């Protein structure tokens, strides 16, 4: 194989050889940092002298990573092992400065946007090229665990550290992103930071009127956390489509499949498309004893009937991939001896097939209308909060992740993410991929959430190798 390559392309060439299993050329120096990195990561004897290379100062620093995960979990409004860390709360602010401190320690240049998405960048050899990004979130719903999102932020920082320790030099810049508010806890909007980055104008407009459960506006809450922004600043959060050449998120599976099948790595091919709906019915209410059954228009029963209709329409789709959940039913006035005069229900439905999911939403709407008519209540609200398209992982990233896992001798499977993540929105502005690692019994969003350090370290290695590969592409 001729080696008429410019020096700047040499790194790319070497990685290409390793990734695509070309025969090894003895004219490549074993001192090349990219070379050494890949050899050390993969444990794959790709070079005649690899066996004699000093061993592995390149491995994942599991002790430090575990300490960081534990320390981050202490920024919580509830005692361990549970974690509660809600957007712009005091604990969120402390956790943010902890992340920035770690980014600084890793030698990254830090930038924060108007809503507090945090970016730590390692400049590549060619800063004119679009960067390769990775990251996740650190906010935690009430009484959840310490791994959801966190593994994809602290793990990403460790992946960068692993590459740095190895002497690797990226050609494209590498960037770690900590997204603001992946969880919808405070303002009812999930993936707030990444949605804004994806340039969703409707969200920027909606935030003007958004308040939390305590009637604190989004802007006041942000201000209390040190983000003094106005509506115009939200547009500056938008990121252009060619800003990143790739985005990869490392995450716990939040389901039981990898653990059950004894697989250390899941390679996500698609993220299911979520939709959420708020519905309200209004009736006359009345005394639970005095108003006889024929005279009632019970808003509570309308909600109950709609909840069952959601299940029916989901099952009618005939696909195991269609799911629907009614997680909230609130009745007003909420007294045992009062016929509900108002009901509020929230519906979540998802599918990997957008058309099928939209069909469920449409049928739920038809049911809400007919239930209101039949029960003589008013359908005072049928609001589709979000109806997002599914996201497909980029072929090129699936390939890079797969080869990385193979080089590391880690068994893996292609799978669908049924939970959604910041990656769903990053996919709108960048080629996207996700790496899953197993978690104990699939538990998530509760204190029992757990991922072993061995599994986390495997995920970090696959991430590091994938970043290395994509950064020289
Ligand atoms: Zn998450």
From TrEMBL:
Any one Gene Ontology molecular-function term assigned to this protein's record: manganese ion binding
Pfam families from the UniProt entry: Peptidase_M20
Q: Which chain positions lie within coiled-coil regions? A: none
State the Gene3D superfamilies in the record.
3.30.70.360, Zn peptidases (3.40.630.10)
Intracellular or extracellular location(s): Endoplasmic reticulum
SUPFAM superfamilies named among the record's database cross-references = Bacterial exopeptidase dimerisation domain (SSF55031), Zn-dependent exopeptidases (SSF53187)
Task: Give me any GO biological process, just one.
Answer: ureide catabolic process
Pathway given for this chain reads: Nitrogen metabolism; (S)-allantoin degradation; glyoxylate from (S)-ureidoglycolate: step 1/1
Q: Which reaction does it catalyse?
A: (S)-ureidoglycolate + H2O + 2 H(+) = glyoxylate + 2 NH4(+) + CO2
Which terms in the GO cellular component ontology are assigned?
Answer: endoplasmic reticulum
Q: Which UniProt keywords apply?
A: Endoplasmic reticulum, Hydrolase, Manganese, Metal-binding, Purine metabolism, Signal
Q: What is its main location?
A: endoplasmic reticulum
Swiss-Prot/TrEMBL cofactor(s): Co(2+); Mn(2+); Ni(2+)
- This enzyme's EC code(s): 3.5.1.116
Instruction: Report the protein's function.
Output: Involved in the catabolism of purine nucleotides. The sequential activity of AAH, UGLYAH and UAH allows a complete purine breakdown without the intermediate generation of urea.
The record's similarity note reads: Belongs to the peptidase M20 family.
Q: What is this protein called?
A: Ureidoglycolate hydrolase
Where is the organism placed in the taxonomic lineage, from the top?
Eukaryota, Viridiplantae, Streptophyta, Embryophyta, Tracheophyta
């Amino acid at each position: 194989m001729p080696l008429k390559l410019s020096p700047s392309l040499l790194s790319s060439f070497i990685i290409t050889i390793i990734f695509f299993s070309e025969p090894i050329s003895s004219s490549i120096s074993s001192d090349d940092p990219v070379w050494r990195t890949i050899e050390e990561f993969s444990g794959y004897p790709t070079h005649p002298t690899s066996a004699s290379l000093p061993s592995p100062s390149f491995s994942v620093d599991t002790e430090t990573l575990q300490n960081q995960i534990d320390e981050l979990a202490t920024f919580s409004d509830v005692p361990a092992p549970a974690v509660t860390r809600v957007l712009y709360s005091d604990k969120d602010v402390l956790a943010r400065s902890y992340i920035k401190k770690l980014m600084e320690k890793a030698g990254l240049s830090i930038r924060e946007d108007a809503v507090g998405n945090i970016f730590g960048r390692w400049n590549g050899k060619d800063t004119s090229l679009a960067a390769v990004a990775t990251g996740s979130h650190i906010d935690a719903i009430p009484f959840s665990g310490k791994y959801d999102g966190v593994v994809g932020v602290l793990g990403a920082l460790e992946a960068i550290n692993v590459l740095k320790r190895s002497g690797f030099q990226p050609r494209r810049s590498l960037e770690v992103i900590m997204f603001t508010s992946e969880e919808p806890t405070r303002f009812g909007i999930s993936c707030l930071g990444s949605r804004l980055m994806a340039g969703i104008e409707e969200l920027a407009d909606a935030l003007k009127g958004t308040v939390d459960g305590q009637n604190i506006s989004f802007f006041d809450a942000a201000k209390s956390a040190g983000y003094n922004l106005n509506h115009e600043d939200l547009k500056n959060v938008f990121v252009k489509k060619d800003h990143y050449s790739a985005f990869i998120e490392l995450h716990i599976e939040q389901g039981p499949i990898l653990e059950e099948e004894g697989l250390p790595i899941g390679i996500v091919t698609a993220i299911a498309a979520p939709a959420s709906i708020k519905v309200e019915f209004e009736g006359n209410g009345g005394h639970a004893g005095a108003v006889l059954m024929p005279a009632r228009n019970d808003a509570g029963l309308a909600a109950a009937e709609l909840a069952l209709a959601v299940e029916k329409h989901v099952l009618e789709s005939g696909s195991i991939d269609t799911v629907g959940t009614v997680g909230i039913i609130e009745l007003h006035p909420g007294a045992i001896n009062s016929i509900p005069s108002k009901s509020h229900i929230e519906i979540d439905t998802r599918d990997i097939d957008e058309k099928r999911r939209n069909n469920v939403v449409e049928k739920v709407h038809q049911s809400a209308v007919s239930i209101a008519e039949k029960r003589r209540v008013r359908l005072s609200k049928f609001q589709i909060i979000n109806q997002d398209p599914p996201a497909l992982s980029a072929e090129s990233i699936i390939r890079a992740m797969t080869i990385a896992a193979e080089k590391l001798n880690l068994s893996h499977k292609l799978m669908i993410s049924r939970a959604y993540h910041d990656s769903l929105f990053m996919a709108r502005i960048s080629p996207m991929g996700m790496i899953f690692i197993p978690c104990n019994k699939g538990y998530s969003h509760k204190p029992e959430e757990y991922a072993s350090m061995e599994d986390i370290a495997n995920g970090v290695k696959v991430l590091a190798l994938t970043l290395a590969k994509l950064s020289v592409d």
